[in-house]
Amino acid sequence: MILIYVKKVNPRIEYISKLIFNQLLQTEFAFSTNSSEFRKTDLPKLNYSTDKFDDEFYIKPHRLMFSRAMIKPNIEPVWYEGNKYFCESSKDSDLPFDPLAASFYLVSRHEEYTETERDHLDRFHAKNSILTKYDLLQKPVVNIWAKLLGQKLKEHYPVLQFGETPFRFISTIDIDNAWAYKNKGLLREGASLLRSFFKHPSEFNERMQVLRGKEKDPYDTYEYIDSVFKGNEDKVKFFILLGDYARFDKNISPHNKNYQKLIRNIRKKYIVGIHPSFASSKKGNRKKTGVERARLESILGEDVRISRQHFLPLKFPKSYRRLIKSGINEDYTMGYSCMPGFRAGICTPYYFYDLERESTTNLLVVPFQILDGTFPYYLHLSPQKALEEITAIMSEVKKVGGTFVSVWHNETVNDKGIWEGYQKVFEEMNRLGFEWAKENVTHNKEEEVHI
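Below the sequence we write its predicted structure tokens.
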């Protein structure tokens, strides 16, 4: 137990304290607003106020923890032991930066509320993140800072014990387009045939072979995916796009019987969530997420509570409020399409904090660290280099006992075109991730027996 002194407990301090101490450090804490009681206690204690008392562990809180103005704060870098941090504390503090405020700034996505520059799809761009500017995007800094705070507290109070969180591995597949050529409907198939006949003869020939049943559809990789996931199905999630046909939502019709059969077959082995359409993220389409979720529930005959947004559009707080209103309680959208790394600076699932309402919600945010398309489309990396990047990120997550989440698509593991060589990347990433996750389970079981 750690006793934390604050002059007044506010929602921000309560939220981030639960995340840092309960979730990441696996320990209990209590607040005290009574300075006399705090000074007399024999418990390990953290003074998180503007007044330092005796020799207790002290951090002067950053002004961010008390501000309610929705403006871009002036945050300067702080150097400590050769590493860069931000949200300065004070010279008499035991750390020169405030890990609670810095962590809150990242996980609340404060910077996304105030940044006006967006990319071509109206998304927050990774280049505008403080983590990119400080060269920290490839580090799970919130987890790292929590461990640093725990280490410093333990040096001050050797009696303290902190729990270890195990490495977890979640492999996810988005189905944006279940088949490249099949099951598109007569109008779409006819238009595509004409277009490919005049502009892409090789595609026309392949399309005809598939439609005649002489070749397998290039996006039909489901048997291959099953072979990679065999024995680890519990660590896999699929997200299904069921939006109405539109410019950015060109999925198979949700009414197509073969598509519905495919979805039910996937659910026999894996957890399935909704992939809300890009159109659902637009103004005036607030009810689309609920409609699409209901479609999936109707196909599966069960509740669906998890999601990931198609094309990853997130606007705070509207996107998450829309999900909550639609009945979603777990979302996997938190990550970038253009860069691997830690968008919210953390690799542990956490609850969304609504900054405008200053309240914790029941929506669990599960960040992902890598997206398949990042490597060939944005970074122009070879499969070997992509695997090196993925392994490095996964190692960072393993070091802090976090949850590694990847995003792939059924069409990106077909080993064709720009994806040639990426089957090996997919296989090796999953092999290593499943292996590391099992090591943690075995290690934990051995510890339990020993105890």
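The longest helix spans residues 422-450.
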